[in-house]
Amino acid sequence: MAGRQRLAAVAVVALLASGLSGCGGGADAPATPSGSPTPSTVSPTAASPTGPAKPTDRSPHGVLLSAQLAMQTARRAKVSYRLGAEAGSGPLFWQPKTALQIKRVAPADAEQLIVVDTVAYQGGDAATAARQGGRHWERFTVPPDPDGHKEIPYAGLIDLLNPVEALAAATADGADPAFVGEEKYEDSTVEHYRVTTTAEKYAAAQTQLTQARRDGLRAALAPGGSLSLTLDLWLNDKDQLVRLQRTGNGDSGRADDSVLYSDLAGALLSAQAPAEADTVDTGVRTVSPLAR
Questions:
Q1: Which of 35, 91, 93, 285 could share a disulfide with 99, CB 3.0–4.6 Å?
Q2: Mean pLDDT across the chain, nearest whole number?
């Protein structure tokens, strides 16, 4: 592929707007969003981050390292996913703060889910409005970790969708990625790579996560005791991940996940909390790491 041989110029990475520096949990903010991003509104600035220069190492491992850097730089994308029987789509922000706004499409009557840092909103449907006296959204947080730090609701789902985590697993010590070949994907040509690993190694590669969160990720990746895990990754000519597939086999279960990434670093992507007047605060609730 000719585009693989050209080095891109290093561009400045645009930061998200005020209130979003750092990568840890933040304090709760009013549900009504203001004009600039707050913990209840996550959106990029007008200047979108562009990709770094490609490294000269174009071995499979070198390319996937480049892809990891490219996705760190992108910070956000629209995701369309199928995780077992569950499916949905919407914007995902993975750096510097976590945010997700998902419309579930399977099961058909599923509620919508919004996560903005350490606060979640669920509902957006007639059933929630009937249950909550006309308000369409339930606001909640999850219990803190053993050290008292705020946790991110639906962290297990976010970890399964996070492309940087997938690429960290694909480039971890002992991983031996292989170049499968060039393939047509939509209107472009992509490069297909494959890595064989395990759920335990995938989770262990996420050194930035707490141990409890790594344990939850390992459980989510290993339904029914899955022992092996194959990662298939498709990269565009900017070394950005545009498709991820995870398959695995075990004694009594099988992993079969697919995530598509589009509008990478999109300037119009946002995750926004519902209006306070349409929200009921339901306090603290426990969310399983296996929850989708």
A1: 93
A2: 83
